[in-house]
Write a structure and sequence with these properties.
283 residues, alpha/beta, 27% strand, disordered N terminus
């Protein structure tokens, strides 16, 4: 919070999701943080797009790193666009990748692209569609990687947190492809446990990377849920997580099933939005 109190360059616009602001990073000349209604949403370093400042984005970046051999292009889908941070990362680390982004807030996309141009040669197509609508329009088995980072007013909508949503993901995901989702929760972790139980029900393999304090319900935070119909690259992922500055657990197998604590599979009929972050989290 202290950093934001300093005099920094900002630009803003009204978008469908509220007030979008870009704050220049005072420590890096060409890096910006995107906020929506005051909540930090993305961070982009135009000079060094492989630099992921947010912890949860680094963990998703590790998934991108292990999704295929080094530098091999991917057919990737990003559900939720924001500042297109991970699409930029993929374009630079995996040249010639073909990427689709579902971001329903067209005004936000226009604001971001006007102020934060994409890397040269990036093959990124942004569609002004809701995540489930976008999945319904995509061909079967057409993506090797699907990343869900879907938030509206800092909460994941209920219709993107159900078994039926995962069924739509599985239809689009090619055999052996990876699905990764950024999920936020705190306290008793009811939402996150339900999402893990639902992934275990819909996919043969699943894992969860999570900070120990969040796993114990001591603070609100992010869990990255990973799933596939084939083997997960767990060893490679553990190696990257082990280099993170903060400890991160990777729950798999019986440990992940124990984490769900008997949570039931979430359906469209029972799904709820993810919990709102604590009011004090963003100052």
């Amino acid at each position: 919070m202290a950093r934001r109190a300093r005099q920094v360059e900002t630009t803003s616009a009204t978008v469908a999701g509220g007030r979008a602001e870009l704050l220049r990073d005072p420590d890096r000349a060409d890096a910006w943080e995107l906020l929506l209604d005051g909540a930090p949403q993305s961070h982009v370093d135009l000079t060094e797009p492989t630099r992921l400042a947010f912890e949860y984005q680094r963990r998703l970046g590790h998934v991108i790193d292990v999704a295929a051999p080094d530098r091999a292009p991917l057919r990737a889908v990003h559900l939720g666009g924001g500042a297109l941070t991970l699409a930029r990362y993929t374009a630079v680390t995996r040249p010639r990748s073909s990427q689709q982004v579902a971001e329903p807030d067209a005004a936000l996309t226009e604001f971001v692209r006007r102020h934060l141009p994409l890397p040269a040669g990036a093959r990124i197509k942004v569609r002004a569609l809701d995540a489930r609508e976008a999945l319904d329009r995509m061909p079967e088995d057409s993506a090797e990687l699907i990343i869900a980072d879907i938030f509206h007013h800092a909460r994941t909508p209920a219709h993107c947190a159900s078994a039926e949503f995962l069924d739509a993901v599985r239809r689009v995901l090619a055999p052996g492809g990876l699905y990764a989702a950024n999920i936020t929760d705190g306290g008793p972790l009811t939402h996150l446990r339900g999402q893990a139980a639902t992934a275990l029900d819909r996919f043969p393999a699943a894992a969860l990377s999570i900070a120990p304090a969040v796993a114990r319900g001591r603070r609100y935070g992010n869990g990255i849920l990973l799933a596939s119909d084939g083997p997960l690259p767990l060893d490679a992922l553990r190696a990257r997580l082990g280099r993170e500055p903060q400890p991160t657990r990777l729950l798999t197998g019986a440990e992940l099933r124990d984490f769900t604590a008997g949570a039931r599979v979430v359906t469209d009929a029972t799904a709820q939005p993810s919990p709102a972050p604590p009011a004090e989290l963003f100052g």
